[in-house]
From TrEMBL:
<dbReference type="GO" id="GO:0005886">
    <property type="term" value="C:plasma membrane"/>
</dbReference>
<keyword id="KW-1015">Disulfide bond</keyword>
<keyword id="KW-0336">GPI-anchor</keyword>
<feature type="signal peptide">
    <location>
        <begin position="1"/>
        <end position="20"/>
    </location>
</feature>
<dbReference type="InterPro" id="IPR001863">
    <property type="entry name" value="Glypican"/>
</dbReference>
<comment type="similarity">
    <text>Belongs to the glypican family.</text>
</comment>
<dbReference type="GO" id="GO:1905475">
    <property type="term" value="P:regulation of protein localization to membrane"/>
</dbReference>
<dbReference type="GO" id="GO:0009986">
    <property type="term" value="C:cell surface"/>
</dbReference>
<feature type="region of interest" description="Disordered">
    <location>
        <begin position="470"/>
        <end position="526"/>
    </location>
</feature>
<keyword id="KW-0357">Heparan sulfate</keyword>
<keyword id="KW-0449">Lipoprotein</keyword>
<dbReference type="GO" id="GO:0005576">
    <property type="term" value="C:extracellular region"/>
</dbReference>
<dbReference type="GO" id="GO:0098552">
    <property type="term" value="C:side of membrane"/>
</dbReference>
<keyword id="KW-0325">Glycoprotein</keyword>
<comment type="function">
    <text>Cell surface proteoglycan.</text>
</comment>
<dbReference type="InterPro" id="IPR019803">
    <property type="entry name" value="Glypican_CS"/>
</dbReference>
<keyword id="KW-1003">Cell membrane</keyword>
Length: 549
């Protein structure tokens, strides 16, 4: 049995008069009857005046307006109402994160759509057959870019390389219609393409810039969705039996005691809610890292990675590459012939369509940099406000939802009667609830659902950390469950990024498997060392016994 330093206060409460006044007349239960009926319960059997409370299991057993059935109904009601408060608080956070995702996603998709439309509008008149006969190549490129952004399992660099290869094969044949160019000849040409650089520096520059921009944009959009999903799943975690009893005592026991107008003491409310949400508070560290990581990537998107310029001008860069091939056609063709030999002359003859349609690039891209800047500013403001969500949730629920009284007020409900609340407020998180006077919390049994969500936050923070450095990381979860030690060491974005990143020149997405955290691994290693330690202890005891004799 735990003995608290405030035991004297409890004795004082126990020795206080059972009734709120000094009179002997039983008080009316009209207020409780009204509340009970308003909650949808039948008034049959509800006392008209106070009765003895020896039957009560949760509320103090003084004079009361509640029967056993009423206490049970109020307990169930308080549980559902508190869970509803949690879900409502979670929905507000989900709404913010979802709105941020929707805003950025709409902006990014619009940027890509405008680039594609500009290409479709301008290229037919600029390049004639060079475009019309190869329209599918361009369409496939934008499809691949969208697939990557939507988290499809494709390699972005390979997709870009494939686009330039296909485009070069098609254009080389169209620019040299007088020759019969076989697939084998095209394979030879492609092998020499890197050396001849037929499209100039555009493919290399676009690959570097577009890859960084898409990695950052994709991870940024995913981060909002992961954060929202974590809040949704955590908000659905059920209350423990001990928490349910404490919530009932906090919310409805003053009504049973005939003190309906009393508000809970603030510190009393905080201890109850902190005990109930002990596991949720353990999300705070990784949650803050996720918010910080999202803000870090936001700065990259609106800064060095310049998403607006890179994504919005893809069509312009492609046009530059085609023009470079046209302008250097003779030189490039000569080099290809030197490396691969002269192809056979075609019997179909040549066409001048491409010559008539050739022209200098006059494409322009409309900047939407200001819109992106406003999106980033709005996102950073919301992310900053959400950083402390899990830590401030108890005080938010107590002050806004449960309307707790002032901390200095001695005319509040302290769990037993009207008076001051003396115990100190517990810290945040599961480990700090070991001496919580209001909720019995087993700190050795963390909630598995919440531990899994802590792991999801870590994974997303890792992804954002790598995106911040321009590296793509794909994670593959090979475990069916997550160990209770899931909170582990914290991993800020800059540390995770350095730990998992490869050299900037290597863009192949990495795959990291999350190992099963079962009886093997670290815990297994420590258990294997136990027999030798036990043997050493036994030898020491035998030696001591021999000396004593």
């Amino acid at each position: 049995m735990r003995v608290f330093p405030w035991g004297f206060w409890l004795l004082c409460v126990a020795s206080a008069p059972a009734r709120g006044d000094s009179g002997s007349k039983a008080r009316s239960c009209a207020e409780v009857r009204q509340l009970y009926g308003a909650k949808g319960f039948s008034l049959s059997g509800v006392p008209q005046a106070e009765i003895s409370g020896e039957h009560l299991r949760i509320c103090p057993q003084g004079y009361t307006c509640c029967t056993s059935e009423m206490e049970e109904n109020f307990a169930n009601k308080s549980r559902s109402e508190f869970e509803a408060m949690m879900k409502e608080a979670g929905r507000s956070v989900q709404a913010i994160l979802t709105a941020q995702h929707r805003s950025f996603d709409s902006y990014f998709q619009d940027l890509l759509n405008k680039s594609e439309k500009a290409l479709y509008d301008a290229f037919p008149s600029m390049y004639g057959e060079l475009y019309t006969q190869n329209a599918k190549v361009f369409k496939d490129l934008y499809s691949e870019l969208r697939r990557y952004y939507r988290s499809s399992n494709i390699n972005l660099e390979e997709a870009l390389n494939e686009f330039w290869t296909r485009l070069l094969e098609r254009l080389f044949k169209l620019l040299n219609p007088q020759y019969h160019i076989t697939d084998e000849y095209l394979d030879c040409m492609v092998k020499h393409a890197e050396q001849h650089r037929p499209f100039g520096e555009v493919p290399r520059e676009l690959k570097v810039k577009a890859t960084r921009a898409f990695i950052a944009a994709r991870s940024y959009a995913q981060g909002f969705l992961v954060g929202s999903d974590v809040v949704r799943k955590v908000s659905q975690v059920s209350l423990s039996q001990e928490c349910s009893r404490a919530i009932m005592k906090l919310m409805y026991c003053p009504h049973c005691r005939g003190m309906a107008s009393l508000k809970p003491c603030t510190n009393y409310c905080l201890n109850v809610v902190k005990g109930c949400l002990a596991n949720q508070a353990d999300l705070s560290t990784e949650w803050k890292y996720l918010m910080d990581s999202l803000m870090g990537v936001a700065d990259r998107i609106d800064g060095p990675y310049n998403v607006d310029t890179v994504i919005g001008t893809i069509h312009v860069r492609i046009a530059e590459a085609i023009s470079n091939l046209q302008d250097n056609k003779d030189s490039i063709t000569s080099k290809v012939f030197q490396g691969c030999g002269n192809p056979k002359i075609s019997t179909k003859g040549s066409s001048s369509e491409d010559k008539k349609r050739r022209g200098k690039v006059t494409l322009e891209a409309k900047s939407s940099a200001q819109a992106l800047e406003m999106l980033v500013l709005d996102a950073k403001g919301n992310l900053t406000a959400l950083k402390t969500y899990w830590i401030t949730l108890p005080s938010s629920l107590c002050s806004k939802k449960m309307m707790s009284s002032s901390a200095s007020d001695d005319k509040c409900w302290n769990g037993m009667t009207k008076g001051s609340y003396l115990p100190e407020v517990m810290g945040d998180g599961l480990a700090n609830q070991i001496n919580n006077p209001e909720v019995e919390v087993d700190i050795t049994k963390p909630d598995m659902t919440i531990r899994q969500q802590i792991m999801q936050l870590k994974i997303m923070t890792n992804r954002l950390g790598n995106a911040n450095m321009g590296n793509d990381v794909d994670f593959q979860d090979t475990s069916d469950d997550v160990s209770g030690s899931g909170s582990g060491d914290s991993c800020p974005d800059d540390v995770c990024g350095k730990r998992l990143s490869k050299s900037p020149s290597t863009r192949q997405p990495e795959t990291h498997a999350i190992p099963k955290q079962s009886g093997h691994g670290v815990s297994g290693a420590s258990s294997r060392s136990l027999p030798s330690a036990s043997l050493l202890l036994l030898l020491l005891l035998l030696a001591a016994l021999h000396l004593w004799r």
